[in-house]
Amino acid sequence: MKSSSSTNPRNWSKKVWLGIAAAVIIIAIIVGAVVGVRESERRANAYPDYSKLNYSLLDTYAGTGFFDNFDYFTGYDPSSGFVHYVDAQGSQILNLTYATSSTAILRVDTTDTNATTGRKSVRITSKKLYSKGLFVFDIVNTPYGCSTWPALWLTDPSNWPTHGEIDVVEAVNGATTGNQMTLHTTKGCEMDRKRKETGKVLTKDCYNGTDSNAGCGVQGSQDTYGQALNANGGGVYAMEWRSEGIRMWFFPRSNIPSDITEGASPDPSTWGTALADFPSTDCNIGSHFQNQSIIANIDLCGSWAGSSAVYSTGCPGLCTDFVANNATAFETAFWQWNSWKVYLPV
Ligand SMILES: *[C@@H]1O[C@H](CO)[C@@H](O)[C@H](O)[C@H]1NC(C)=O
Ligand SMILES: *[C@@H]1O[C@H](CO)[C@@H](O)[C@H](O)[C@H]1NC(C)=O
Ligand SMILES: *[C@@H]1O[C@H](CO)[C@@H](O)[C@H](O)[C@H]1NC(C)=O
Ligand SMILES: *[C@@H]1O[C@H](CO)[C@@H](O)[C@H](O)[C@H]1NC(C)=O
Ligand SMILES: *[C@@H]1O[C@H](CO)[C@@H](O)[C@H](O)[C@H]1NC(C)=O
Ligand SMILES: *[C@@H]1O[C@H](CO)[C@@H](O)[C@H](O)[C@H]1NC(C)=O
Question: What is the mean pLDDT of residues 106-132?
Protein backbone atom coordinates (compact mmCIF):
# COMPACT_ATOMS: atom_id res chain seq x y z
CA MET A 1 0.00 0.00 0.00
CA LYS A 2 1.28 3.37 -0.93
CA SER A 3 1.46 5.82 1.94
CA SER A 4 0.52 9.40 1.34
CA SER A 5 1.45 10.51 4.87
CA SER A 6 3.46 13.76 4.95
CA THR A 7 5.56 12.29 7.81
CA ASN A 8 7.24 9.95 5.34
CA PRO A 9 10.40 11.77 4.10
CA ARG A 10 10.04 10.03 0.73
CA ASN A 11 7.05 12.18 0.06
CA TRP A 12 8.58 15.50 1.10
CA SER A 13 8.80 18.10 -1.60
CA LYS A 14 11.98 19.79 -2.70
CA LYS A 15 10.78 22.88 -0.85
CA VAL A 16 10.61 21.03 2.48
CA TRP A 17 14.11 19.60 1.96
CA LEU A 18 15.48 23.03 1.22
CA GLY A 19 13.85 24.36 4.39
CA ILE A 20 15.43 21.61 6.49
CA ALA A 21 18.83 22.21 4.91
CA ALA A 22 18.58 25.93 5.63
CA ALA A 23 17.58 25.27 9.27
CA VAL A 24 20.55 22.91 9.74
CA ILE A 25 22.93 25.48 8.30
CA ILE A 26 21.54 28.24 10.53
CA ILE A 27 21.84 26.06 13.66
CA ALA A 28 25.39 25.15 12.70
CA ILE A 29 26.26 28.83 12.29
CA ILE A 30 24.73 29.73 15.67
CA VAL A 31 26.51 26.88 17.46
CA GLY A 32 29.76 27.77 15.72
CA ALA A 33 29.40 31.40 16.70
CA VAL A 34 28.71 30.57 20.35
CA VAL A 35 31.67 28.20 20.49
CA GLY A 36 33.82 30.79 18.73
CA VAL A 37 32.82 33.55 21.13
CA ARG A 38 33.48 31.27 24.11
CA GLU A 39 36.88 30.35 22.68
CA SER A 40 37.87 33.95 22.02
CA GLU A 41 36.62 34.91 25.50
CA ARG A 42 38.69 32.10 26.94
CA ARG A 43 41.72 33.28 24.99
CA ALA A 44 41.12 36.90 25.93
CA ASN A 45 40.86 36.03 29.63
CA ALA A 46 43.76 33.58 29.68
CA TYR A 47 46.39 34.73 32.13
CA PRO A 48 49.17 32.84 33.90
CA ASP A 49 49.06 31.94 37.58
CA TYR A 50 51.72 34.16 39.12
CA SER A 51 51.14 32.83 42.62
CA LYS A 52 53.74 33.41 45.30
CA LEU A 53 57.16 31.75 45.05
CA ASN A 54 59.48 31.58 48.05
CA TYR A 55 62.66 33.34 47.00
CA SER A 56 66.03 32.84 48.60
CA LEU A 57 69.18 34.93 48.01
CA LEU A 58 71.63 33.31 45.57
CA ASP A 59 74.11 36.02 44.48
CA THR A 60 75.00 39.53 45.65
CA TYR A 61 76.98 41.89 43.47
CA ALA A 62 78.23 44.66 45.77
CA GLY A 63 81.27 46.08 47.53
CA THR A 64 84.87 46.60 46.39
CA GLY A 65 84.81 43.29 44.50
CA PHE A 66 81.73 44.26 42.45
CA PHE A 67 83.52 44.18 39.08
CA ASP A 68 85.42 40.93 39.79
CA ASN A 69 82.27 39.01 38.86
CA PHE A 70 82.30 40.16 35.23
CA ASP A 71 84.13 39.74 31.96
CA TYR A 72 84.91 43.00 30.18
CA PHE A 73 83.84 42.89 26.53
CA THR A 74 86.48 44.42 24.26
CA GLY A 75 85.47 43.41 20.74
CA TYR A 76 83.96 45.44 17.95
CA ASP A 77 80.60 46.77 19.18
CA PRO A 78 77.83 44.40 17.98
CA SER A 79 75.42 47.37 17.89
CA SER A 80 77.61 49.51 15.57
CA GLY A 81 78.36 52.12 18.22
CA PHE A 82 81.09 54.78 18.08
CA VAL A 83 82.77 53.33 21.11
CA HIS A 84 85.88 51.51 22.30
CA TYR A 85 85.05 49.10 25.09
CA VAL A 86 88.00 49.00 27.49
CA ASP A 87 89.27 45.89 29.31
CA ALA A 88 89.31 45.37 33.10
CA GLN A 89 92.79 46.73 33.71
CA GLY A 90 92.34 49.74 31.43
CA SER A 91 88.98 50.53 32.99
CA GLN A 92 90.56 50.61 36.42
CA ILE A 93 93.46 52.81 35.28
CA LEU A 94 91.10 55.23 33.49
CA ASN A 95 88.64 55.01 36.42
CA LEU A 96 85.84 53.93 34.07
CA THR A 97 84.86 51.27 36.60
CA TYR A 98 85.23 52.07 40.27
CA ALA A 99 83.88 50.34 43.36
CA THR A 100 83.91 51.02 47.10
CA SER A 101 82.40 49.05 49.97
CA SER A 102 79.08 50.82 49.36
CA THR A 103 78.79 51.67 45.67
CA ALA A 104 79.90 50.83 42.11
CA ILE A 105 80.31 53.19 39.15
CA LEU A 106 80.62 52.45 35.42
CA ARG A 107 81.20 55.43 33.15
CA VAL A 108 82.20 56.87 29.77
CA ASP A 109 85.55 58.67 29.36
CA THR A 110 85.23 62.44 29.92
CA THR A 111 88.84 63.45 29.18
CA ASP A 112 89.55 62.75 25.50
CA THR A 113 88.80 65.96 23.55
CA ASN A 114 89.67 64.42 20.16
CA ALA A 115 88.15 60.91 20.20
CA THR A 116 88.15 60.61 16.41
CA THR A 117 87.67 56.84 16.28
CA GLY A 118 85.15 56.61 19.11
CA ARG A 119 85.10 57.25 22.85
CA LYS A 120 86.15 54.83 25.57
CA SER A 121 83.41 53.13 27.52
CA VAL A 122 82.68 49.81 29.26
CA ARG A 123 80.54 46.73 28.72
CA ILE A 124 80.54 44.08 31.46
CA THR A 125 79.06 40.57 31.26
CA SER A 126 78.41 38.51 34.39
CA LYS A 127 80.44 35.31 34.58
CA LYS A 128 77.43 33.59 36.12
CA LEU A 129 74.57 32.48 33.90
CA TYR A 130 70.90 32.37 34.84
CA SER A 131 67.78 30.67 33.47
CA LYS A 132 65.22 32.06 35.94
CA GLY A 133 65.07 34.08 39.14
CA LEU A 134 64.26 37.37 40.77
CA PHE A 135 66.79 40.11 39.93
CA VAL A 136 66.87 43.21 42.14
CA PHE A 137 68.92 46.16 40.88
CA ASP A 138 69.42 49.02 43.34
CA ILE A 139 70.29 51.96 41.09
CA VAL A 140 71.60 55.33 42.32
CA ASN A 141 72.28 56.97 38.95
CA THR A 142 71.36 56.22 35.32
CA PRO A 143 73.49 57.56 32.42
CA TYR A 144 72.00 60.06 29.99
CA GLY A 145 73.03 62.70 27.47
CA CYS A 146 73.28 63.12 23.70
CA SER A 147 74.68 60.05 21.88
CA THR A 148 74.42 57.71 24.89
CA TRP A 149 72.70 54.32 24.71
CA PRO A 150 72.99 52.73 28.17
CA ALA A 151 71.44 49.40 29.08
CA LEU A 152 71.14 46.96 31.96
CA TRP A 153 70.00 43.69 30.41
CA LEU A 154 70.33 39.93 30.14
CA THR A 155 71.22 37.72 27.23
CA ASP A 156 73.40 34.80 26.11
CA PRO A 157 75.66 36.68 23.67
CA SER A 158 76.85 33.49 21.96
CA ASN A 159 73.28 32.25 21.34
CA TRP A 160 71.35 35.36 20.34
CA PRO A 161 68.41 35.50 19.73
CA THR A 162 67.88 31.75 20.33
CA HIS A 163 68.26 32.13 24.11
CA GLY A 164 66.44 35.47 24.18
CA GLU A 165 67.21 38.92 25.52
CA ILE A 166 65.60 40.69 28.49
CA ASP A 167 66.17 44.46 28.57
CA VAL A 168 65.39 45.72 32.06
CA VAL A 169 66.69 49.30 31.86
CA GLU A 170 67.41 51.00 28.54
CA ALA A 171 67.17 54.51 27.09
CA VAL A 172 68.86 56.76 24.53
CA ASN A 173 70.17 60.33 24.29
CA GLY A 174 68.43 62.83 26.59
CA ALA A 175 66.25 59.96 27.83
CA THR A 176 63.31 62.13 28.81
CA THR A 177 60.60 59.65 27.80
CA GLY A 178 61.10 57.05 30.52
CA ASN A 179 62.68 53.61 30.73
CA GLN A 180 62.07 51.10 27.96
CA MET A 181 61.69 47.41 28.91
CA THR A 182 61.88 44.95 26.02
CA LEU A 183 62.14 41.26 25.14
CA HIS A 184 63.83 40.00 21.97
CA THR A 185 63.34 36.39 20.81
CA THR A 186 63.19 34.02 17.88
CA LYS A 187 59.80 33.51 16.17
CA GLY A 188 56.74 32.57 18.27
CA CYS A 189 56.72 34.94 21.25
CA GLU A 190 53.93 37.50 21.20
CA MET A 191 52.40 39.81 23.79
CA ASP A 192 49.08 40.64 22.14
CA ARG A 193 47.36 39.19 25.21
CA LYS A 194 45.84 40.06 28.56
CA ARG A 195 48.53 41.75 30.64
CA LYS A 196 48.61 43.47 34.02
CA GLU A 197 50.97 46.41 33.83
CA THR A 198 51.09 50.17 34.33
CA GLY A 199 53.59 50.87 31.51
CA LYS A 200 52.69 51.84 27.96
CA VAL A 201 52.79 49.05 25.35
CA LEU A 202 54.94 50.03 22.35
CA THR A 203 55.15 46.83 20.26
CA LYS A 204 53.81 43.31 20.78
CA ASP A 205 55.87 40.86 18.72
CA CYS A 206 59.14 39.91 20.42
CA TYR A 207 60.53 38.16 17.30
CA ASN A 208 63.82 39.80 16.28
CA GLY A 209 62.82 39.61 12.59
CA THR A 210 59.83 41.96 13.13
CA ASP A 211 60.12 45.78 12.88
CA SER A 212 63.93 45.62 12.44
CA ASN A 213 64.41 43.89 15.80
CA ALA A 214 62.34 46.41 17.79
CA GLY A 215 61.32 43.58 20.14
CA CYS A 216 58.20 43.80 22.32
CA GLY A 217 58.61 46.95 24.37
CA VAL A 218 56.91 48.66 27.28
CA GLN A 219 57.67 52.22 28.33
CA GLY A 220 57.64 53.66 31.86
CA SER A 221 56.78 57.21 32.86
CA GLN A 222 59.36 60.00 32.63
CA ASP A 223 60.61 59.56 36.20
CA THR A 224 61.61 55.93 35.62
CA TYR A 225 64.89 56.93 33.95
CA GLY A 226 67.53 59.62 33.51
CA GLN A 227 67.73 63.04 35.07
CA ALA A 228 64.33 62.74 36.76
CA LEU A 229 65.20 59.35 38.33
CA ASN A 230 68.67 60.50 39.42
CA ALA A 231 67.27 63.65 41.03
CA ASN A 232 65.12 61.42 43.24
CA GLY A 233 68.13 59.38 44.41
CA GLY A 234 67.44 56.57 41.97
CA GLY A 235 65.41 53.54 42.94
CA VAL A 236 65.05 49.81 42.50
CA TYR A 237 64.24 47.81 39.38
CA ALA A 238 63.12 44.25 40.07
CA MET A 239 62.71 41.68 37.30
CA GLU A 240 61.03 38.34 37.94
CA TRP A 241 61.73 35.63 35.37
CA ARG A 242 59.72 32.39 35.80
CA SER A 243 57.93 29.99 33.47
CA GLU A 244 54.62 31.90 33.89
CA GLY A 245 56.15 35.09 32.53
CA ILE A 246 58.60 37.93 32.96
CA ARG A 247 57.57 40.98 34.99
CA MET A 248 59.36 44.17 35.96
CA TRP A 249 58.67 46.67 38.72
CA PHE A 250 60.16 50.07 39.43
CA PHE A 251 60.24 51.59 42.92
CA PRO A 252 61.51 55.14 43.48
CA ARG A 253 63.99 55.53 46.36
CA SER A 254 61.26 56.88 48.64
CA ASN A 255 58.95 53.91 48.10
CA ILE A 256 60.97 50.68 48.11
CA PRO A 257 59.02 47.73 49.59
CA SER A 258 60.38 46.63 52.98
CA ASP A 259 60.93 43.04 51.79
CA ILE A 260 63.41 44.41 49.23
CA THR A 261 65.16 46.64 51.79
CA GLU A 262 65.33 43.77 54.28
CA GLY A 263 66.50 41.54 51.46
CA ALA A 264 65.99 38.04 52.85
CA SER A 265 63.01 36.90 50.78
CA PRO A 266 61.34 39.52 48.59
CA ASP A 267 57.79 38.64 47.54
CA PRO A 268 56.62 40.12 44.22
CA SER A 269 53.07 38.90 44.90
CA THR A 270 52.77 41.76 47.43
CA TRP A 271 54.15 44.53 45.19
CA GLY A 272 51.04 45.39 43.21
CA THR A 273 50.73 45.78 39.44
CA ALA A 274 54.01 45.48 37.56
CA LEU A 275 55.37 48.25 35.33
CA ALA A 276 55.88 45.71 32.53
CA ASP A 277 54.26 42.27 32.22
CA PHE A 278 55.28 39.71 29.60
CA PRO A 279 52.99 36.71 30.28
CA SER A 280 53.69 33.23 28.92
CA THR A 281 50.22 33.01 27.30
CA ASP A 282 51.59 33.26 23.74
CA CYS A 283 55.27 32.78 24.50
CA ASN A 284 57.00 29.73 25.94
CA ILE A 285 59.24 31.57 28.41
CA GLY A 286 61.18 28.42 29.29
CA SER A 287 62.24 27.73 25.71
CA HIS A 288 62.73 31.35 24.57
CA PHE A 289 64.89 32.48 27.52
CA GLN A 290 67.87 30.50 28.77
CA ASN A 291 71.47 30.64 29.97
CA GLN A 292 71.75 34.40 30.29
CA SER A 293 74.42 36.72 31.68
CA ILE A 294 73.59 40.07 33.23
CA ILE A 295 75.14 42.80 31.09
CA ALA A 296 75.62 46.51 31.76
CA ASN A 297 77.07 48.91 29.22
CA ILE A 298 77.01 52.42 27.85
CA ASP A 299 77.09 52.40 24.08
CA LEU A 300 77.51 55.61 22.06
CA CYS A 301 75.59 56.36 18.84
CA GLY A 302 75.02 52.94 17.21
CA SER A 303 71.89 51.54 15.64
CA TRP A 304 69.46 53.12 18.12
CA ALA A 305 70.88 56.30 19.74
CA GLY A 306 72.76 57.21 16.56
CA SER A 307 69.99 56.63 14.02
CA SER A 308 69.56 60.09 12.49
CA ALA A 309 65.82 60.40 13.21
CA VAL A 310 66.33 59.48 16.87
CA TYR A 311 69.55 61.44 17.47
CA SER A 312 68.38 64.62 15.75
CA THR A 313 65.37 64.82 18.08
CA GLY A 314 67.04 67.03 20.65
CA CYS A 315 70.75 66.56 19.90
CA PRO A 316 73.11 68.78 17.86
CA GLY A 317 75.02 68.00 14.62
CA LEU A 318 76.23 64.49 13.91
CA CYS A 319 76.26 61.87 16.66
CA THR A 320 79.85 60.81 15.96
CA ASP A 321 81.09 64.45 15.95
CA PHE A 322 79.46 64.98 19.31
CA VAL A 323 81.14 61.87 20.74
CA ALA A 324 84.54 62.79 19.30
CA ASN A 325 84.62 66.41 20.44
CA ASN A 326 82.38 67.03 23.41
CA ALA A 327 84.25 65.25 26.23
CA THR A 328 82.66 67.14 29.13
CA ALA A 329 79.14 66.29 27.90
CA PHE A 330 79.79 62.74 29.15
CA GLU A 331 79.95 63.76 32.80
CA THR A 332 76.31 62.67 33.13
CA ALA A 333 77.02 59.35 31.37
CA PHE A 334 77.53 57.03 34.31
CA TRP A 335 75.79 54.15 36.06
CA GLN A 336 75.95 54.00 39.82
CA TRP A 337 74.62 50.99 41.74
CA ASN A 338 74.36 50.13 45.42
CA SER A 339 73.93 46.43 44.69
CA TRP A 340 72.49 43.78 42.40
CA LYS A 341 70.89 40.74 43.99
CA VAL A 342 69.69 37.51 42.43
CA TYR A 343 67.17 35.25 44.16
CA LEU A 344 66.00 31.77 43.18
CA PRO A 345 62.75 30.08 44.19
CA VAL A 346 63.34 27.42 46.85
C1 LIG B 1 56.27 28.91 50.53
O2 LIG B 1 56.46 28.75 51.91
C3 LIG B 1 55.24 28.55 52.65
C4 LIG B 1 55.57 28.58 54.13
O5 LIG B 1 56.67 27.77 54.40
C6 LIG B 1 54.60 27.27 52.18
O7 LIG B 1 53.38 27.08 52.85
C8 LIG B 1 54.36 27.34 50.68
O9 LIG B 1 53.86 26.11 50.20
C10 LIG B 1 55.62 27.68 49.92
N11 LIG B 1 55.31 27.91 48.53
C12 LIG B 1 55.96 27.34 47.53
C13 LIG B 1 55.49 27.69 46.16
O14 LIG B 1 56.89 26.58 47.70
C1 LIG C 1 87.40 57.58 40.41
O2 LIG C 1 86.03 57.91 40.44
C3 LIG C 1 85.51 58.08 41.75
C4 LIG C 1 83.99 58.28 41.63
O5 LIG C 1 83.68 59.32 40.78
C6 LIG C 1 86.19 59.22 42.45
O7 LIG C 1 85.65 59.36 43.77
C8 LIG C 1 87.68 58.92 42.53
O9 LIG C 1 88.36 60.01 43.12
C10 LIG C 1 88.22 58.65 41.14
N11 LIG C 1 89.59 58.18 41.26
C12 LIG C 1 90.57 58.76 40.60
C13 LIG C 1 91.93 58.16 40.81
O14 LIG C 1 90.39 59.71 39.85
C1 LIG D 1 92.46 64.94 16.21
O2 LIG D 1 92.89 63.66 15.74
C3 LIG D 1 93.05 63.61 14.35
C4 LIG D 1 93.29 62.16 13.95
O5 LIG D 1 94.04 61.48 14.91
C6 LIG D 1 94.22 64.52 13.97
O7 LIG D 1 94.40 64.51 12.56
C8 LIG D 1 93.88 65.94 14.41
O9 LIG D 1 94.98 66.80 14.18
C10 LIG D 1 93.53 65.98 15.89
N11 LIG D 1 93.01 67.30 16.24
C12 LIG D 1 93.45 67.94 17.31
C13 LIG D 1 92.82 69.29 17.56
O14 LIG D 1 94.30 67.51 18.06
C1 LIG E 1 67.35 37.99 13.77
O2 LIG E 1 68.09 36.84 14.13
C3 LIG E 1 68.52 36.06 13.04
C4 LIG E 1 69.13 34.78 13.55
O5 LIG E 1 70.28 35.02 14.28
C6 LIG E 1 69.48 36.87 12.20
O7 LIG E 1 69.89 36.12 11.07
C8 LIG E 1 68.80 38.15 11.74
O9 LIG E 1 69.72 38.97 11.09
C10 LIG E 1 68.22 38.90 12.94
N11 LIG E 1 67.46 40.03 12.46
C12 LIG E 1 67.59 41.25 12.97
C13 LIG E 1 66.80 42.32 12.30
O14 LIG E 1 68.32 41.49 13.92
C1 LIG F 1 75.64 29.13 27.84
O2 LIG F 1 76.36 30.33 27.65
C3 LIG F 1 77.76 30.16 27.68
C4 LIG F 1 78.40 31.52 27.64
O5 LIG F 1 77.79 32.36 26.71
C6 LIG F 1 78.16 29.29 26.50
O7 LIG F 1 79.54 29.08 26.54
C8 LIG F 1 77.44 27.95 26.63
O9 LIG F 1 77.71 27.17 25.48
C10 LIG F 1 75.95 28.15 26.72
N11 LIG F 1 75.28 26.91 26.99
C12 LIG F 1 74.31 26.46 26.20
C13 LIG F 1 73.66 25.20 26.65
O14 LIG F 1 73.96 27.03 25.20
C1 LIG G 1 78.43 69.80 24.28
O2 LIG G 1 77.58 69.19 25.25
C3 LIG G 1 76.87 70.12 26.05
C4 LIG G 1 76.12 69.33 27.11
O5 LIG G 1 75.31 68.35 26.51
C6 LIG G 1 75.96 70.94 25.17
O7 LIG G 1 75.29 71.91 25.96
C8 LIG G 1 76.76 71.63 24.07
O9 LIG G 1 75.89 72.25 23.15
C10 LIG G 1 77.61 70.61 23.31
N11 LIG G 1 78.48 71.28 22.37
C12 LIG G 1 78.54 70.98 21.09
C13 LIG G 1 79.51 71.74 20.27
O14 LIG G 1 77.86 70.09 20.60
Answer: 98
